[in-house]
Amino acid sequence: MKNLLPLLLSVLLLYSCATKEETPDSLPVKVAKAYGIENFDQVNSIAYTWNVQRDSVNVLSRDWKWNIKERTVYYSGPDTTYTYSLDADSLPPADAGFVNDKYWLMMPFQLAWDTGYTFDSKENVSTPIKGTNSTQLTIAYAPGESKSPGMGYTPGDAYDLYLDENNKILEWTFRRGNGDTGRTWTWENEQQFGPITLALDHMGQDGNRFIWFTNVKVD
């Protein structure tokens, strides 16, 4: 029996390795990996300014610093500045803005972090704005209460992500409440920040920049 025990342990180890290798990544995980999710444990904090073109003249900007290890968020907006803990019993109003802005910058990583969605995909789909051939990945969040685990503040919404051959996002369409129609923006100006990649510019169907990020710093 003593002689059989090492052999049995070796067989179990080989089986567990084979099982892991035989389990392919889902498409959402492949997208997250394309932007460096496997290196995210090297990131201590991410700071950035989120900008949106509200009309032809006015731009709204918000500054954020997400201290990942400490689980705190620094916020500076037009009227106030403060830091809050993500573990607090009651989160401040700015947290909804933090979640929204983080999706615009880090949606590829949300695909690995979030749990409350289903997905489907189609090959050889033309992107809505530029007409580029792509793989369409549809992410549909389940309905539920606001700030439901793994679903953010607006559960029930859907996103159509249009991917290139490297599983990078070319364009995305946001469909509120998983409706039949939505609005589309591009994902452009990819840059490497330490161990991860981020897309900084989102252009609208009119060709104008709608949301963009400045002052990005990853430590």
Strand order of the largest sheet: 4-3-2-1-12-11-10
Which structural category do the helix and sheet elements fall into?
alpha+beta
Strand content: 35-45%
The level of helicity is 10-25%
Number of helix segments?
3
Summarize the structure.
This is Lipoprotein. The protein is 21% helix and 40% strand.
Structure in words:
The protein is α+β, with helices and mostly antiparallel strands and 219 residues long. Helix content is 21%, strand content 40%. The protein contains three helices and twelve strands, in the order ααββββαββββββββ. The chain has helices at residues 4-21, 27-34, 94-113, and strands spanning 45-53, 59-67, 72-76, 81-85, 117-126, 133-141, 158-163, 169-175, 183-186, 188-193, 196-203, 209-218. The strands form two sheets. Strands 4-3-2-1-12-11-10 form a seven-stranded antiparallel sheet, covered by helices on one side. A five-stranded antiparallel sheet has the order 5-6-7-8-9, with helices on one face. Strand 5 (117-126) and strand 6 form a beta hairpin. The N and C termini lie far apart (53 Å).
Q: Layout of helices and strands, plus pairs?
A:
Elements: H1 4-21, H2 27-34, E1 45-53, E2 59-67, E3 72-76, E4 81-85, H3 94-113, E5 117-126, E6 133-141, E7 158-163, E8 169-175, E9 183-186, E10 188-193, E11 196-203, E12 209-218
Helix pairs in contact: 2-3
Keywords for this entry:
219 residues; alpha+beta; 7-stranded antiparallel sheet; 21% helix; globular; disordered N terminus; Lipoprotein
